[in-house]
Amino acid sequence: MNFDLSKLKKRPAHPFETIAVAIAFSPRLEAVLAEAKRLSFVLEAGLILIHVGAKSQNKEEKLEKLLTKVGLDNNHVRVIWAEGNAVDTILSYCKLNIVDLLIIGALQKENLLNFYLGTLARSISRKAKCSVLLLTKPSVDAAKPKKIIVNGVENAKTIHTINTAIYLAENYMVDEISVVKEVHTPALAMTIADDSTAPEAKVLKKSISTEEEEKLQLVLKKCNTKKIKINEKIVNGKPGYAISKYARDKKADLLVMNSPDTQLNVFDRIFTHDIEYILADLPCNVLIVHSRL
Amino acid sequence: MSKLSHHDLIVLLLSISTMLILSRIVAELGKRFKLPVVMGELLVGILLGPTIFGQLNPEMFNYLFPRDGSIPIAMDGIFSLSVIMLLFVAGMEVQLPLMLKQGKLAVYTSFMSMVIPFFTGFATAWFFPEIFIDDLTEWNKFLFALFFGTALSISALPVIARILMDMNLFKTNVGMLIIASAMFNDLIGWLIFSLVLSLSAGNTDKMALGYTIVYIIGFGLFMLTIGKRIIDRTLPWMQTKLSWPGGVLSISLGICLLSAAFTESINIHAILGAFIAGIAFGDSVHLNEKAREIIHQFVTNFFAPLFFVSIGLKVNFIENFELDIVLIVLVLAYIGKVVGASLGAYWGGMKNSNALAVGFGLNARGAMEIILGTLAYNAGLISLKIFVALVIMALVTSLTSGPLMRKFIKQ
């Protein structure tokens, strides 16, 4: 397949004009389609369904039935039937069709072997050149997300990610979002134990936290925060794990985060860090924003 | 069962309390002048040891720190336990994911800050062994060269972390790069050193060397994958169902000792087991920060002073001070580490004077170097003169690291 990458390069992370759904004929397909339909209607985006696998009359009939059931027809949706390596094929069609958001149903947790080998949803999340929405519990009723949490990590992409979360929240009529910054200070315990008094240790920890708060505020100043309330939160812990735990504790509906900076491989899963903690055990639906910088 | 006599017990308790109280007082005084705690502890050892107290009042010195009988054996047990605990907490701060996520710049810096000092040390010891050792058999020359290379390539994470925090650089890119590289240096350094210790214990044939390497790699891989997963699964249970903080403290230290016993039993030194157990334990996301602090406080404030004071008790620093060796070790340490780390940072993409700041930052050797030197001396790998030179190098590099970094850093 030949791509015109110039159309993709520097394309803003939002609005989501074209949404694709990677479909498999699993029991959750109806719920995934219902969620995709709702999102495409809310965002007024075009919808493409991509299925990798042999096309058959049985599958076509089943899909048509489900589309009708969730209220979609051929005017709203285009179906692509393709064959080949599932991950590469889906990602190729996403590039070819200038897809802004790819929706995939994903299990909350994979078994150990599948996690290390990399399942379809996780592999796409690691490689995609567009934003990816992983739906852990898609619902036919497709309720709007109420609690949206955004990762405020220190990174050039974060402004785009926060703005994308705000764009989604505004379209969903959600009044507020939480931007969470994780603070992880390796060797802090060792340094404090060596030669700090209790008040000194307290001041040191406080100063680290304050510094991170100030950095987050600087980032938020550059975001489109005028129409929405932003809750800022600093959490301590390892990047990826801390925000995942926070999202789970707060029963978040959607966790929004940056796409990985580098190509992740099996070592990143063995020595888990950042996004891999989230992919290992999805705390809720996860939106990975790809800012084509 | 033989046991300490009433008198021996009193002397043992007196000597331990003297070491603990004096080292704390001197360390607190040193803090006012921004001197590392380890320096105060070493100074107390020198004051209490044969260098000063032993000269001024030999009778009292021999009473408090006898060289024969059951007290030195009891002390030796405590010191061995101390070094195992120190390596455990050092391992707890090595975080492999942090190294992975730092990317190309960290890979270049970590690699070069290890390789260049290692080869600087190895080549000097290999081609000019007469400077350092009298026994010039090929095997001893090889072991010493391996050790000397390792000694020059190791870094001291606690000192470096403190310097970066004082300079408000810890959370910057330069700070994280230095921390990640120091972790890598420590990890590889202790792996090589474990190999050297194992070889020095008599495993001299090629077969034994091969087995030792396989054991070290196998044990490391097991602990950092399966062992770490088991710890990950059980830690939340330990922290919620067992007494707090006693439960996590006893289980973690128990795992450390178990792991140390295992490596010792397969002819790799106990320190490797403790170090790797520390990595597996400290890297767990479930380890409560408070629990981590408690383990550090316990080890750093009880075992560390005993260990570092004991160094001064065993060594006469004046008698064993040889200026030539000290200067050579210092020059090689600075050249190897600063050039290696700076070049790595430069090739990794850091094109300004920050690359030099990274070099000077990683140059601090601190307590880790002293532990390494002590173990090497105990294993008969080095003479007291080289040991004293290494201790001085550790202190000088730690003291100069901050000011030199400040000179080159551009924020």
How would you describe this structure to a colleague?
- The complex is a heterodimer of chains A (293) and B (411).
- Chain A is built from 11 helices and 10 strands.
- Chain A is an alpha/beta fold and 293 residues long.
- Chain A has a 10-stranded mixed sheet, with helices on both faces.
- Chain B is mostly helical.
- Chain B has 2 domains: 78 residues, no CATH class; 325 residues, Na+/H+ antiporter like fold, CATH 1.20.1530.20.
- At the A-B interface, α7, α8 and α10 of A face α6, α9 and α14 of B.
CATH fold call of the largest domain in chain B: Na+/H+ antiporter like fold
Percentage of residues assigned to helices of chain B:
over 70%
Class from helix and strand fractions of chain B: mainly alpha
CATH fold-level label of the largest domain in chain A: Rossmann fold
Beta-strand proportion of chain B: under 5%
The radius of gyration of chain A is 20 Å
For the record, the count of structural domains of chain B works out to: 2
Q: Which sequence of SSEs, written as H and E, runs from N to C of chain B?
A: HHHHHHHHHHHHHHHHHH
Low-confidence stretches of chain B: none
Based on DSSP secondary structure assignment, what is the total number of beta strands of chain B? Answer: 0
- The sequence of SSEs of chain A as H and E is EHEHEHEHHEEHEHHEHEHHE
Q: CATH class of the largest domain in chain B, anyone?
A: Mainly Alpha
Mean pLDDT of chain A: 86
Radius of gyration of chain B: 21 Å
Distance between the termini of chain B: 63 Å
What spatial order of strands do you see in the largest sheet of chain A? Answer: 3-2-1-4-5-10-9-6-7-8
Strand content of chain A: 15-25%
Please, what is the average pLDDT of chain B? 88
